[in-house]
Specification:
The chain is mainly alpha-helical and 134 residues long. Helix 5 crosses helix 6. Helix content is 77%, strand content 0%. The chain has helices at 4-32, 48-55, 60-74, 76-91, 96-108, 112-133.
């Protein structure tokens, strides 16, 4: 065990030692942590799904819940499709949702009517989960 004199001498340089240890520990934790995935977590700006919810006057907590729930219920591809049509719609609202679906269909080589019908169903589910999260 260190004497009082030794402890005070160690304490003077101990702060930086503790800082270095904390930084090294944080680097190890980050390196071995699983990647964060899911809607809104990897993106700084709000997603289209979140923006639609927030523009409807709902709280950020409700919108985060709705976004997470919608992603869990739809899965990756349908959620991405809903986001893409929503982004096209936000870029050109005068074209309506139909026009946005047609724009996305042209970009990906899909059937505009099928994309429109699918994303309308996703929109219904989105409204349901917003109500459930409120």
């Amino acid at each position: 065990m260190a004497s009082i004199g030794e402890a005070s001498r160690l304490g003077s340089g101990g702060f930086w030692t503790r800082v270095a240890f904390a930084l090294a520990l944080a680097a190890v934790v980050i390196a071995f942590s699983p990647p964060v995935a899911g809607p809104g977590l990897a993106q700084a700006p709000p997603t289209v799904v979140e923006a639609i919810c927030l523009n409807g006057g709902r709280s950020p907590a409700v919108c985060a819940c709705a976004e997470r729930t919608l992603f869990e219920r739809l899965g990756d591809d349908p959620y991405a499709q809903y986001e893409a049509v929503g982004q096209a719609w936000l870029s050109n609202p005068s074209g309506g949702w139909d026009g946005a679906a047609a724009d996305v269909a042209a970009r990906i080589g899909g059937d505009p009517r099928e994309i429109l019908n699918q994303t309308k169903l996703y929109g219904q589910l989105h409204r349901e989960v917003m109500r459930a999260c409120a």
